[in-house]
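Quality-control log, excerpt.
Job 1 of 2 completed; input and output follow.
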Amino acid sequence: MTILIPSYEPDERLITLIHKLKEAGDDAILVIDDGSGADYRSIFDEVEQAGCTVLTHRINQGKGSALKTGFDYVRQLAQSDGVVCADSDGQHLPGDILRLSEAVREHRNHIVLGSRQFTGKVPLRSRIGNSATRMIYTLATGRPIQDTQTGLRGYSSDMLDWLCQVPGDRFEYEMNMLLEAPRVGYPLVEVPIDTVYLDDNKSSHFRPFADSARVYFPFLKFSASSGFAAILDFILLLALQWLTSNLLISVIGARICSAIFNYSVNRKYVFVKGKGQGTAIRKSLPRYFSLALIIVLLNYGMLHLFHESLGISLIAAKLVTEASLFMLSYWAQRTFIY
């Protein structure tokens, strides 16, 4: 087993963690210096002297890039039965890291998550951030997990090719990985670990606004695409209703036009998979419009209920309907279509 530790501008806690891991077991330890600079060279020199391998980025490239560098190195060696990733700031206890190593050996082809339980004194930004990403992940995938932001994760060696291909170079990489895993068939296993925050998590390099935007970027892209499609659908619905006075024709006509727009944008910009776009189109196009048909039927049924049966105004009924179907559409598109 290889223990992979990405590190940017570490302090003595990295050295302490290394020594404790060396005392507890004989796993190989790989540390990635993610462009920390000359001021931190002495710390990484001491890490090497302790028997670890250190790979260095010339400039800071982000946590996702550091993890990929480590995964690629382990993949090329082809000597490890798996990788456990841990943070360098002392928030992951050596005992928990070793327990995750055992879980990786027991659960091949699974992503093993060291899940914090968030009991006791937890910094407010960490509690809010984890609650928000946990809710969004559950809505997007239909699968609840306890800790979406944990940096303590384990993978079997046959997952390394895929791990090197997951998009993202910074903190968004770990969320992208969780979103991609169900699609490629990697289940998640959670192992409870202790929740440790030192000095209110001041050592974290996570930037609340910039990095949160990166983490939520997949949802923001989908929201923007859906938002423009909804505006188009809304305008066409009102126009067709005014022209025909027929709700069914108005709903179907508006949805066909907005669906064509939404599919084109999502395929090209939102759920980008890289190579093999021709094959993706042949598979995704009929699936998308099958989903669109289901959404149309649900859309019409809900509009009929709210507008014609309950007497709610068409505008209010439309807003409630679209909000209700938004996350259903995201989950279905990520899971089954793209």
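Job 2 of 2 completed; input and output follow.
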Amino acid sequence: MPIEEVEMQIRGLMMDPVTNMPIVVLKDIASDQVLPIWVGLFEANAIALELEKTATPRPMTHDLLRNFARGLNARVEKVVVSELRQDTFYAVIWMDHAGERVTIDARPSDAIALALRSDCPIYVARDVLNRSRQVADGAGNINAEELRKWLENLNDDEMGRYKM
């Protein structure tokens, strides 16, 4: 049975006010549902550079990956945040190489940075969206649900607080 995927867009990139770690906020394009994913500083910078269309004097790692794929006549078709295991998200990069489908395991932050550079869609497995909400609810973790509601209601100015 195929996995149902929900198309997402990057709603914003910001700093978590509690942990002071960057958060990529993905938003369902068909609803207000959001999925926050905490990422490392370097990955957040790679995402921010592309979101802001900032040119760098030399290719950064995710630019290199895009260029490598192009050099091998491969195309990044989509990225999917595919699993949530023990509070860790997993992603898959879907590529086409000469008509053959190739999948590559990746961290969501790397997959998102590559998706931005490859101009391809970002998806989250429906099960991951449901489980991330259940984990927040089931653990009695009021803070996680409050954070989700807070993220859903942020305006564009508040979403852009991440600074490189």
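Post-run check on job 2. The first strand starts at residue 5 and ends at 15.
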